Amino acid sequence: MTSAPLAARLTAVAGPLFFPVTAYGPDGGVDLAAFRAHVRAGVDAGAAAVFACCGTGEFHALTPEEFRLVVAAAVEETAGAVPVVAGAGYGTALAVRYARLAEEAGADGLLAMPPYLVVADQEGLLGHYTALAAATGLETIVYQRDNAVFTPETVLALARTPGIIGLKDGYGDLDLMQRIVSAVRTGLPDQDFLYFNGLPTAELTGLAYRGIGVTLYSSAVFAFAPDIALAFHRALGSGDDDLVNGLLDHFYRPLVELRAKGRGYAVSLVKAGVRLGGLAVGEVRTPLTEPPAAHIEELTGIIASGRALLEKRRAGEVK
Question: 174: Cβ–Cβ under 8 A, 6 or more apart, which residues?
Answer without folding.
Answer: 208, 209, 211, 212
